[in-house]
């Protein structure tokens, strides 16, 4: 299995070779400032006590508080969280928002827990961690398998323990409990804004065909947003597999079907496909929106899309990147394509600190005006220097981090 942290370091070093950056910058960014491992004891419904391992990696705070989601997953491990934290530092710098980079993870299969066990685990994670987080210190958010409800439990626990009443320590909370309008759809919508900004330059027609891997918060919303803008979403999938329909799926109907049947198998008039097949479909745009290491040296030569929009973090390995670049397939990197989530999270944090609640229109306008200029800048840099978009995005981030870097005496 490819180690995501090694991949993140290779990306960092790749950008460092192309640009000219101050001496210690890359060395400093190759490690996290602080890594915390905690044990979370949870009383299960049957009275037994179970222990879960959790992590928070605080990668870099030169540009603002550490910022990044918390993932609940049976395969979460410290290297994955390290990689995700490093990517967050790059993403907040690419977005030019006043945040740094961090990430959290708990090794658990949340589907195997009852709702009350999940609540005790979520609150337990905060009890183990609360002295290391806070509105000006580290601001977590949702990620894979964590929801607005989980953020509300965590935020409530933090308020009780710290006495801080701002609600600004966790973002992605439900609207009405300190959450921001627009946060739920922000990652998918931000991905669409980025796509829309580069579409013509990438030679993609309006109404093009799209395959989306993963239909959680990110992939599910992306499917609806692309469809609403006239694109044809021909394939969708979850962890068990996917479906394909040449004339396009109705994402809302697919989600409803999945809710009722807990699987996509048997969806009317669609062909069942595996996740591996989905990645190789003959489509204009491929949108990985699930997990890391999906497009690898093994399958990159068979990807037929003209453009890959990375809504997941780390879906393409460095080896695959090289193959795709040689084949002329544009990869819009995660640290740009999925930055909409952290941008609206930051707007939520600002609203909490100011004790305000903004209308959706205002939030989405700010999202667009933050993200689109960065997409233009990165496309331009990549074209001028004839480098992949990911390298250009890392270079933009590294320039901003270099200016913010604290010099040691
Ligand atoms: P989620 O838990 O809501 O959904 C994950 C989806 O991926 C589910 O549909 C699940 O069935 C599917 N999936 C899981 N394993 C899979 C596999 N092996 N193959 C195919 N599909 C699989 O998570 P999410 O919040 O939508 O996050 C998805 C990705 O987007 C992650 O890489 C995450 O880090 C990234 N991301 C999320 C946010 C956010 O705001 N939630 C922001 C930026 C990036």
UniProtKB/TrEMBL annotation:
Q: Which UniProt keywords apply?
A: NAD, Nucleotide-binding, Oxidoreductase
Per the UniProt record, the site (Important for catalysis) maps to 143
Q: Where is the Glutamate/phenylalanine/leucine/valine/L-tryptophan dehydrogenase C-terminal domain?
A: 180-409
Write down the InterPro entries for this protein, in alphabetical order. Aminoacid_DH-like_N_sf, Glu/Leu/Phe/Val/Trp_DH, Glu/Leu/Phe/Val/Trp_DH_C, Glu/Leu/Phe/Val/Trp_DH_dimer, Glu/Leu/Phe/Val_DH_AS, Glu_DH, NAD(P)-bd_dom_sf, NAD_bind_Glu_DH
Keyword Lipid metabolism attached: no
List positions binding substrate.
67, 91, 345
Under the GO molecular function aspect, what terms does this record hold? glutamate dehydrogenase (NAD+) activity; nucleotide binding
List positions binding NAD(+): 187, 217
Q: Which PANTHER family match?
A: GLUTAMATE DEHYDROGENASE (PTHR11606), GLUTAMATE DEHYDROGENASE 1, MITOCHONDRIAL (PTHR11606:SF13)
Q: What is this protein called?
A: Glutamate dehydrogenase
Gene source species: Candidatus Kaiserbacteria bacterium RIFCSPHIGHO2_01_FULL_46_22
């Amino acid at each position: 299995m490819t180690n995501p942290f090694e991949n993140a370091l290779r990306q960092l070093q790749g950008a460092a070779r192309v640009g000219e950056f101050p001496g210690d910058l890359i060395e400093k960014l190759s490690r996290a400032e602080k890594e915390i491992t905690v044990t979370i004891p949870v009383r299960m419904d049957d009275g037994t006590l179970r222990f879960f391992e959790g992590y928070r990696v605080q990668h870099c705070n030169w540009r603002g508080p550490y910022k990044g989601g918390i993932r609940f997953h049976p395969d979460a491990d410290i290297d994955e969280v390290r990689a995700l934290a490093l990517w967050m530092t790059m993403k907040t710098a690419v977005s030019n928002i006043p945040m740094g980079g961090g990430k959290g993870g708990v090794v658990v299969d949340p589907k195997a827990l009852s709702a009350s066990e999940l609540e005790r685990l979520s609150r337990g994670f905060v009890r183990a961690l609360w002295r290391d987080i806070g509105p000006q210190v580290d601001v977590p958010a949702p990620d894979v398998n964590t929801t607005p409800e989980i953020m509300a439990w965590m935020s409530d626990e933090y308020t009780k323990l710290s006495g801080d009443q701002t609600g600004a320590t966790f973002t992605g909370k439900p609207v009405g409990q300190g959450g921001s309008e627009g946060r739920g759809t922000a990652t998918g919508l931000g991905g669409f804004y980025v796509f829309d900004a580069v579409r013509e330059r990438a030679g993609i027609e309006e109404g093009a065909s799209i395959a989306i891997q993963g239909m959680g918060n990110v992939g599910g919303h992306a499917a609806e947003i692309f469809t609403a803008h006239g694109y044809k979403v021909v394939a969708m999938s979850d962890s068990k597999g996917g479906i394909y329909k040449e004339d396009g799926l109705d994402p809302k109907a697919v989600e409803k079907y999945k809710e009722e049947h807990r699987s996509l198998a048997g969806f009317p008039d669609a062909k069942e496909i595996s996740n591996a097949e989905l990645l190789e479909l003959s489509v204009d745009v491929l949108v990985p929106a699930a997990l890391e290491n999906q497009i690898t040296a093994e399958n990159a030569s068979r990807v037929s899309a003209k453009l890959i929009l990375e809504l997941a973090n780390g879906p393409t390995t460095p080896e695959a990147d090289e193959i795709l670049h040689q084949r002329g397939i544009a990869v819009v990197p995660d640290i740009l394509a999925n930055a909409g989530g952290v941008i609206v999270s930051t707007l939520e944090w600002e609203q909490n600190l100011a004790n305000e609640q903004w209308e959706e229109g205002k939030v989405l306008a700010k999202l667009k005006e933050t993200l689109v200029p960065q997409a233009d800048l990165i496309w331009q840099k990549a074209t001028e220097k004839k480098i992949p978009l990911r390298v250009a995005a890392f270079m933009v981030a590294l320039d901003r981090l270099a200016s913010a870097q604290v010099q040691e005496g």
